[in-house]
Amino acid sequence: MTHYRLELDQAACSISSKVTKELEGDFLKGVPFAYLLEKAEFYENVFYVNSRVLIPRPETEELVDILVREKKTYSNVLDVGTGSGVILLSLLLKNVAATGMGVDLSPDALKVAQTNARRLRLLDRCEFLKSDRLKEVHDFFELIVSNPPYIKAKSHRNLVHQQVDQHEPHMALYLDDQDYHSWFASFFTQVRDHLIPGGVFMMEGHELELEAQAKILKELGFQEVIVLKDLGGSNRFLRGKKA
Ligand code: GLN
Question: Does residue 57's CB lie within 6 angstroms of at least one atom of ligand 1?
Fold first, then answer.
């Protein structure tokens, strides 16, 4: 018996030292802790994350917080580029919206969002769909939220932290410089066409681009268009209401 125990202990030890070695190696390569631990905290909850989704940021918690503090409730919400699902699922947990849909271009990201919805027991209140922006979406919403890729791949790349650029998914971060304006113009058009009258759109964006994007929203007929700052004092959010 003692003999077996010893072998078992040795086996357990070598397994865990292998795992520890791998973790150490990844850590030394600069892999962010959230990816090593496969979890990140966001707005009072712990979410599963892996390298196919962005690590949730405090600014994005502010977006959720603004909506929570308004105490307005919506029957449904659409989250475009849902990633790990942190925005959508936090809004559902706080009952800002009763039901929701998360769309993403990345099937791997959708798996992460689904895992989080299951762990948080929200599967019966949300659905997920693979879609480039709102192309595959047919429903109408009272609230549309998004943290889209918003960094210009060439001209703004130097502002991105090296660890972010090296380890986080580029499709969630970057857009081609030449396509940037038209990408958002068609995104906002789709948003307008999927909001019910009076519906609200709220997005996180780049501090150097939000004023220009506010103009696009106004040109599309959105009302009460406003750029909001994050706690660091930078322009960070764009909000508008469908007429
Ligand atoms: N805020 C992120 C960063 O600093 C960018 C997120 C995004 O592009 N949606 O890297």
Answer: yes
